[in-house]
Design brief:
The chain is an alpha/beta fold. The chain contains seven helices and eight strands. The strands form two sheets. A six-stranded parallel beta sheet has the order 3-2-1-4-5-8, sandwiched between helices. Strands 6-7 form a two-stranded antiparallel sheet. Helix 5 runs parallel beside helix 6.
């Protein structure tokens, strides 16, 4: 069996929270990595061309004023990330795609042991889903340039810019919980 055939059978791309509501920077604050969407689109096209499993996750906020509340227009997927008819979709109400969903059981039933993650935001839902996936025994890759983060604030008034938040989140996961790679590395089969 070739490497691509093996990868097609047991590696899923998980698209995390590619939702329109995250475009509202007045609500979320400044973000980093303006290339994230283009890289996410490239990954998705690559996975679809291989016929490999694609999974979409969206956040279903329980806060009515949230841009991700199910009745808000921001809850909808970004155009490039609209699921195809044969792609699984999971709604979550917390940071992890594994809590309150059948994702773990469904991956196991399909014989999927490896997951490649991209999405929003690097330090929240991507981070939490990565940690849980690793703790559940999946081999995890995060595509760092297909994710983005927002600036974060502490109660004492300090603000951490989005690049720093993104980079520290990836550094905290790399090695212990996941491999952090670029879109080009993943598509080129060079993510070691």
């Amino acid at each position: 069996m070739t490497e691509i055939e093996t990868e097609t059978e047991n590696t899923a791309l998980i698209m995390i929270d590619w939702q329109q509501g995250f475009a509202d920077l007045d609500y979320w604050g400044q973000r980093n990595n303006p290339e994230a969407e283009a890289n996410g689109a490239r990954l998705l096209a690559h996975w679809r061309a291989k016929g490999a499993p694609v999974i979409h996750v969206h956040h279903d906020s329980t806060t009515p004023t949230s841009r991700l509340y199910p009745d808000h227009p921001g809850h909808a997927f970004i155009d490039f990330a609209t699921p195809a008819d044969d792609e699984a979709v999971y709604g979550k109400q917390v940071n992890s795609a594994f809590i309150g969903t059948a994702l773990e059981a469904d991956l196991g039933a399909r014989g999927i042991s490896k997951v490649v993650l991209c999405g929003i935001s690097t330090d929240h839902c991507v981070n939490t889903t990565t940690r849980m996936a690793a703790n559940l025994g999946f081999e995890v890759t995060i595509v760092g340039d297909a994710c983005f983060a927002f600036e974060r604030r502490l109660p004492d008034g300090r603000v951490f810019d989005a690049d720093l938040v993104h980079d520290v989140a990836l550094a905290s996961l790399n090695g212990e919980f996941a491999k952090v790679c670029t879109t080009d590395q993943v598509i080129g089969g060079k993510c070691d």
